[in-house]
Amino acid sequence: MTDFVLPPPPVPSVAVHDSRQRFAVRRIFCVGRNYAAHAREMGNDEREPPFFFTKPADALVDSGSTIPYAALTQNLHHEIELVVAIGKGGVLISRDAALDHVWGYGVGIDLTRRDLQDVAKKMGRPWDWAKAFDQSAPCGPLVPAQASGHPQKGRIRLAVNGEVRQQGDLADMIWPVPDIVAICSEAVELQPGDLIFTGTPSGVGPVAVGDRLSGEVEGVGTVELEIGPPR
Length: 231
Prior knowledge:
Blueprint: E1 13-15, E2 22-24, E3 28-32, H1 36-41, E4 51-55, E5 60-62, E6 65-68, E7 76-78, E8 80-86, E9 102-109, E10 112-113, H2 114-123, H3 128-131, E11 137-139, E12 143-144, H4 145-148, E13 155-160, E14 163-169, H5 177-187, E15 195-197, E16 205-206, E17 212-217, E18 221-228
Parallel strand pairs: 3-15, 5-11, 6-18
Antiparallel strand pairs: 1-2, 3-4, 7-10, 7-16, 8-9, 8-15, 9-12, 13-14, 13-17, 17-18
């Protein structure tokens, strides 16, 4: 048995729909600007090839949680996303084989400190402090692909206090799931337990203390979150 100087941290994980088991998470990859309307609202060209950023696995938050308003920001934004859970690893995965590597799907929210991201963009700095902070990756229960199928279309939406803020369709993704998996595997060797947040439709905007967020992807599931006071 290996002795550690400090106790190993808990294994990050996501709930599984209708199961007591949980899905252990290794890494979180996120796709930027994968819906044309969102790319345009952020002032970018939707024809750009996909790019990725990451969040730490321990940024995950279970659906139904209350989290503190994030530190260092006055402009915390919601971004609703389809989440892909990888069940079989691989490198240089072909688009035709990509879905064979998908274990299941979920609904996530990519919380973003937009003011910090704006500064990072202007100064040519990494996005880490804007994207990869504590409790920045709420995620609803995963649904195995054998139950949900591989969704190619369907409503994706997010409401704040019951008011719909974001609404689109998975068919609007510039780069669908097989492309995302294949392109990501060109840069890294995907492993079982990796999650991929696949991008957000237009309508991103700020949240405030006391706001209740509810998101859904048709045929996949939901995610719910409340924003509490800052620490």
